[in-house]
Amino acid sequence: MKTLKKSLKCGFLGGLLIATCGVQASVITYATPAGSSTGGGLVSAEATFTTGPGTLDIVLTDLQGNPKDVAQLLSDLDFTLSVALTSGTLNSSAGQELTVNANGMELPPPPVI
């Protein structure tokens, strides 16, 4: 299981991100339906959004074990806020890089330089 966490500090000018942003934490989780697949095979992932006072935390988790094709990997996220946000700051980002070769074998991560 691979997890990628991003924390976005809301810097909003003259408006609220969403109603719960300044009041209390709210957690929303989206997950791929059981049996979901792409041309590369089965996929399984989830995204959890947690709002707090002036913050939005996003945790992406790839739940697919033993991927054999790049199409099975979690590669991006697209979302839209209910109120236009004119600025923001990425406070932190963490994750594990995974490389799968043409034979479907997971390779060790490259060295950090």
In short:
The chain has strands at residues 2-10, 26-31, 37-38, 41-42, 45-52, 55-62, 88-94, 99-100, 106-107. The chain is mainly beta and 113 residues long.
Index terms:
five-stranded antiparallel beta sheet, 41% strand, 113 residues, mainly beta, 9 strands
Description:
The chain is an all-beta fold and 113 residues long. The chain has one domain (2-107). It has strands at 2-10, 26-31, 37-38, 41-42, 45-52, 55-62, 88-94, 99-100, 106-107. It has a five-stranded antiparallel beta sheet with strand order 2-5-6-1-7, with no helix packed on it. A two-stranded antiparallel ribbon has the order 3-4. Mean pLDDT is 76; it is low at 4-22.
Strand order of the largest sheet: 2-5-6-1-7
Our Rg estimate from Cα atoms comes to: 17 Å
Task: Name the overall outline.
Answer: globular
Approximately what portion of the residues adopt beta-strand conformation?
A: 35-45%
In terms of structural class, how would the helical and strand content be classed?
mainly beta
Low-confidence stretches: 4-22
Any chance you could write out the topology, listing elements then pairs?
Elements: E1 2-10, E2 26-31, E3 37-38, E4 41-42, E5 45-52, E6 55-62, E7 88-94, E8 99-100, E9 106-107
Antiparallel strand pairs: 1-6, 1-7, 2-5, 3-4, 5-6, 8-9
